Each structure stands twice: as C-alpha cells, then as structure tokens.
Amino acid sequence: MDGVHGRGHVLRSEPGTPAPDVADLMGAEARELRPGGEAVITRLADILVVHAIRAWIEADPAVATLADEVAMSRAAFAARLTELVGESAMQYVTRWRMHLAVDALRHDRADVAQLADRLGYRSEAALARAFERVVGVPPGAVKQAPRHVTLAPAA
Length: 155
Fold this sequence. Notes:
The protein has eight helices and two strands; from the N terminus they run ββαααααααα. By secondary structure, it is mainly alpha-helical. The chain folds into two domains: 2-59, no CATH class; 73-148, Homeodomain-like (Arc Repressor Mutant, subunit A, Orthogonal Bundle).
C-alpha cells in the first residue's frame, strides 16, 4: 500500500481502488467553504482520477491482452508504448477518444450525453472536461463552428 499524508492521517487505498479518504476530504472541503476550497477540491479530484486510471489499467483486459500478445508485462508494455508514441497509454486513448468525439460532433451531430456513453465516460460532465482539456474548447464549440476546431497533436 502507498500513502499520502493529509489532515493528520495517511490516505491509503488498495491497488486498483479509489481512495475513499480522498472523497471524504472532498466532501469536507465542499461543506466548509473555506478560502482555497475550490482549488483543494480540484486537486483531490485529480487524485481520484489517478486512482481510477490505475484501476482501469490494472483491470483492463485489452492492455493485458496486448501485453500478452507481445510477451511483455503490462508495465513494460506501457513503458514501451510511451516511448514509441510519446505519451502514456491513457493519454493516447484519451486523445483517440477525443478524435472520435470531434468527428461525431462534426458529422453525426451527436450530443455529448450520447458520446459520453459511446466513448466510455461515466457522465456527460466527465467527457466535457476531458474534451476541453484535450481539444481546448468545449464540445458545443465544435457543434457551432465545426470547421474551426482541430485536435492538437500529441506533445
């Protein structure tokens, strides 16, 4: 188990599970409404996302299958993929999903809720946040001016 210190105790989670103490801290920050609380909640949300990504990578049969196909461990496969494409497997998957989302918004006129479900996001808000982070504009901007939005290349 790994831990992160906070509020006088250690936040721990089993591998592959979100840290429940982080969610408790988020709730406390939301209830207390103290200066800087929004920033704290945002950072704690980032931590929960990292835990969720770890769980997905550990449980995702596609990663395991690809690693098995090339006779590598998941960790070695992920490191090699990062070396070859210049970004982590999760970044690559996210960017690819955003390519699909841009295309669907441009050509299918799909709505964000449908895309969230289709692309494996738990909510419309989660897709919208990822979309804006990767594409640089909210999904609605693509629907309003589809030709003016391009997906940035991988860093």
